[in-house]
Design goal:
- The strands form two sheets. Strands 2-3-10-5-8-11 form a six-stranded antiparallel sheet, with helices on both faces.
- The protein is α+β, with helices and mostly antiparallel strands.
- The chain has a domain of 211 residues: Jelly Rolls, CATH 2.60.120.
- The protein has 13 helices and eleven strands.
- Helix 3 crosses helix 8.
Length: 350
């Protein structure tokens, strides 16, 4: 019998130093280079072409006399529909994309980036993200030579679909966002951890597309709760819980889709109500949040497969099948629920 072994975890940036309530120092160049590792880009024109190809057509100009981008690097990935990249010019620069075609978030990792949107200008530094949309003109008139950012391009259709699900109704007007998001706030920290989990999952590779789509949707939906926006009041408004009979029908529908990785927004869409109403219903009638209920259902599915494994099943394949991406987190959740180590359960079931 072949025993699955799990080697040491690959080096990762100290995400907690970026998304925390305390003073934010950002990430060193060495830690930045752990994000989507790639070969550096030494020529400015080539760097600008790569930036425009990954994001938006923009006027990109160098504003200092550096002859080469010795520490410049741009490396982007696409999860399913989101584009996420680590961008570091290695020189002073300015970027003028004009009007972007969706929504966009820049998360500084080091240095300072002056950002303007419509008639407002802010200086983004580690601990504060800048948010833009198609509603107005965007420009980055100053990108310091030591600055690096995570740049997240969000298609308009993806964000608006998640807003539909969260509200339980079709949007009539596209949401407008405030320009800044504090990554030290409680919601900002949650959003930051979700972003880092998605980056780590993309970097690790091997995850089913359905899991990356779930993580992507969760990140985009969470943005609506993390940044002040025109839907905030409606998203926060209290609603009556569903009646028990309607809840039972919804749970039956969840059981019928046991092979899918569902999130609370899916439940809201199935019931035709807002996510807030789903949350109140689950807490009132089941005593847990919908996220915990769905996680427990996925743990139950994983437990069934570990106790009756297929010939090629491993702990990794089972946890991925049921929507878990982190070995240590899955093992801890499984032990908390069943009092056993998943690897031991699988070994005994062979």
């Amino acid at each position: 019998m072949e025993i699955e072994t799990i080697g040491p975890a690959p080096a990762r940036p100290r995400w907690d130093s970026l998304f925390s309530a305390g003073p934010t120092v950002g990430l060193s160049e060495a830690e930045q280079d752990l994000i989507f590792p790639s070969v550096g880009t030494g020529e400015f024109d080539r760097f600008a072409d790569q930036l425009n190809s990954a994001y938006y057509p923009a006027e990109v100009a160098q504003t200092d006399s550096a002859r080469s981008l010795r520490t410049g690097r741009i490396s982007t990935r696409t999860a399913s529909r989101l584009t996420i990249g680590m961008v570091r010019f290695g020189c002073s620069a300015q970027v003028d994309p004009g009007y972007v075609d969706g929504y966009h978030v820049n998360v500084p990792l080091s240095g300072r980036v002056v950002s303007s949107f419509v008639q407002r200008t802010v200086t983004a530094t580690p601990g504060m993200a800048a948010v833009f949309s198609f509603h107005g003109r965007t420009a980055l008139p100053h990108w310091s030579s030591d600055a690096a950012q995570l740049c997240i391009k969000i298609p308009r259709s993806l964000l608006e679909t998640e807003a539909d699900r969260l509200l339980g109704r079709p949007l009539t007007v596209a949401p407008r966002f405030a320009m800044t998001m504090s990554l030290a706030s409680r919601q900002g920290q949650v959003w930051g951890r979700q972003l880092s989990s998605l980056i780590d999952a993309i970097d690790a590779g091997g995850l089913p597309r359905s899991i990356l789509e779930q993580m992507e949707r969760t990140l985009v939906g969470s943005l609506l709760y993390s940044v002040e926006n025109s839907l905030g009041e409606e998203l926060a408004s209290p609603e009556r819980a569903l009646l028990p009979g309607t809840l039972r029908t919804l749970l039956d529908a969840v059981d019928a889709r046991a092979d899918e990785v569902l999130v609370p927004a899916d439940l809201a869409e199935m019931a035709g109500v807002s996510v807030r109403r789903i949350e109140q219903t689950f807490k009132q009638h089941l005593g847990v949040s919908p996220a915990v209920y769905l996680r427990n259902e996925r743990l139950a599915g994983a437990d069934r497969d570990l106790r009756a494994p297929g010939e090629s099943d491993t702990v990794t394949s089972v946890m991925h099948r049921w929507g878990f991406t982190n070995h240590a987190r899955f093992a801890a959740l499984y032990r908390d629920r069943y009092g056993l180590n998943p690897a031991e359960v699988l070994r005994r079931s062979r």
